[in-house]
Amino acid sequence: MSEMEKVYNPSEIEARIYADWEKSGDFAPKGAGEPFAIVMPPPNVTGALHMGHALDDTLPDILVRWRRMLGDNVLWVPGTDHAGIATQNVVEKKLAQDGRTRHDLGREKFIEEVWRWKEEYGGRITSQLRLLGASCDWAHERFTMDEGCSRAVREVFVELYKKGLIFKAPRIINWCPRCHTALSDVEVEYEENAGKLWHLRYQLAENPKKYLVVATTRPETLFGDTAVAVHPADERYQDLIGKEVLLPLTDKKIPIIADEYVDREFGTGVVKITPAHDVNDYEVGKRHKLPALAIMDTSGLLNENVPLRYKGLDRFKARELALTDLEEKGLLDSVQDYENKISRCYRCHDVIEPYLSPQWFVDMPKLAAPAVEAVRSGRLKFYPERWSKVYFDWMENIREWCISRQIWWGHRIPVWYCECGEIICAKDDPQTCPKCGSDKLTQDADVLDTWFSSALWPFSTLGWPDAAADLKKYYPTALLVTGYDIITFWVSRMITMGLEFQKEAPFHKVVIHGLIRDEHGKKMSKSTGNAVDPVELIKEYGADALRFTLASMATAGGQDLKLAASKVLASRNFMNKIWNVARFVLLKLADNKFSAEKSPADEWILSRYQQVIQKTDSALRNFYFGDMALGLYDFVWNEFCDWYIEMSKLGLHKETFLTVFNGILRLLHPLTPFITEEIWAKLGNAGKVINANWPQADKALLNPAREKKMAVVIELIRAVRNIRAEMNVAPAKKADLIILCGDPAVAEALTEAKPYIQQLSGVEKIDLAARLAAKPRNASHAVINGAEIFVPLDKLIDLQAEIARLEKEKNKYQTEINRIKNKLANKSFIEKAPPEVIEKEKEKEKDYAEKFKIVEEQLKALAAS
RNA sequence: GGGCAUAUAGCUCAGCUGGUUAGAGCGCUCGCUUCACAUGCGAGAGGUCCGAGGUUCGAAUCCUCGUAUGCCCACCA
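ok -> structure tokens follow
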């Protein structure tokens, strides 16, 4: 038997145990049980493990370990995401250190560079997942740009293209001038902005003394204006419709048009129309056949379509200059403060530019219906249910999904253009044009949105497009666990693609958890410096402590989790507690002195144990991770350790002890896999706990009568301890105890428990009587359910203190009695409440009344003495 | 402009389907080197369950309104 330190030290143990699990193939699917598959949300290859991942992977690991112990055929598929823009940014930054850009390398060399980078650093996140204890099957590890995933992407693209569900068209899209690419709508973040509303004067061409006032938040875009618009029914401007204004700072004339889009109430009711730089204006422009004049390049610098003075200026510099110039010319009418939203790139946070350009789109509006129906019908459920609302809101108002990105790292769009004008979309690279036979084919330069390959993850990782055995066995997967922040990015698109290509949604259940925040509820981020590094926490407290903390905070409502170091510390202490129970067991096994018979404490803990099994099961079935963790914490610490072990020190029944403690290890294993595995081995159990059977509750061991008796015993011990503490009886001093108990059942329970009472309340002599000739003098007194107790004191009793104690007690009972009396006096309560509720109230009243009477008598006795 | 969520002890939160003596962890007070554990043990203090109405025999729990906070969505310059 190996030595165990007093303090649990996880670091060496965790590394050793994980290596053993992995080496032994303990994570591989096996057995004839039901298939139970989960795909891991693939973290970015560029990433390091953050608290979000820690939660995202702890929760499924709990489920996966649980199902494995239940005998299911469990597959948890790990993998990483190529994370197009993010990864490209990282590698570009690295190049920048040597003063190089990706253009210096050229596309091919640059991509090679990224692959090299991925080989070298991409393993960091997966090694960190191992630190966390994630029991995923590494043999199934995938990468969104590996061979199989790439084939799946092409297959899907080509199929959708053929059906017209993927197309290329000019649209106003979200353009990031820093990343030089288009973004989808979900990749844009909005931020409150204390901006200005500038009122500009557009002079009438026919009479420059007159002018229209146009309100805008973006004066620099005026160079792209190709009209100003008013509402067709706006009386103020009726006679101006069809006439022209002079575009300020230029020598252009642009028409005044009428369009219902204009809000008469807003500003002056006159809008500048800039079709190339605003979504709404683009629509207006189309209706009125206005030209769309782009005035910016892809970096957000003004181009040749503006007066020379502004050409090459950054958009914000150009704004300043334009405003100065307008003011000088007397064309700046007024300026107002104006609150609006500013859109930013979710990657680099640069300000997004609405930009007219041809891009590739998935026609989501045509694909969405089955995905909505799957959830409406209940075939696919969100937990908690309210998240389905977010899903519906998104899916029922879905727009075209812009999937082309003007970067280099990613799945290249499988479309080629022939010099004859033919467009070829193919799964395999075409050599010649099927129409003209030319071999001068140029592939589309763009790559796909990273989320395009993520959308296929549940089936691409299982071997599709081949008719793979894994796909057949594990699709649809059992469930998905993820944060609410990617319902739109990922969940909705996986459901859509799963239904389109597999005819079934990729999972039946979506378990949504909250987001990790710092202690004060602030979003964790590197820039604010409040991010907690899970790897650091694991180093300091152990992976089990971190996992236990995260699970205990993942409550039924799915609220955000505020992570405080004090909580991890508390979990660490709990691990230490368990560790020390194990040390205790080992000591006792070494002593080899056991009781032959089960004691009342044994019966009691066995009964409680059955209930904790049931509670744990039901918590897991409902994804109430917090309930599971807290339920086990409470059972282990407050029942098993505080009462059962303490009582067992009088005589330990080996079988009961080991049954319950091994049961605890198994129940805790999904939460805290390392320490339970280590202790499992130390106790000499066969095999590993990771492969052990999940405990089954045995109803025959439920023992309500024993629990009731034990409740009285515990109440009595607490009462004695309370007296000792309050009356300052020295802890080492053995006291006497006189119990006055007229209830034979209670008397029996207490008699039986005499050794426990002596052991746990520091009492030597116990007298139990049905009645007393005279109540003891100079004794402190308390009343419990069915009995009253006296603790004679050496020194003269502190009358004041004793009276104060009893008065407090009396008042408490009085309050309760009054409450219940009122309730019972209420006629409608008696008439309408269920009989068992009334019965319960009456019983309570009786108990309180009895206690009240006893305390009152005692007070009288004290007063008389 | 829509929607969602939250408001319970000093702090962070449980309390899921109305009946609890309203709980936990941390913190606080008092006392303990009790032979598994001071990362511990024992005993305590601490709560108008955000406010106002309502439903009900009964509300922290359900409904309405309000206040505060957080988040998401939305093309009004």
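The first strand of chain A starts at residue 35 and ends at 39.
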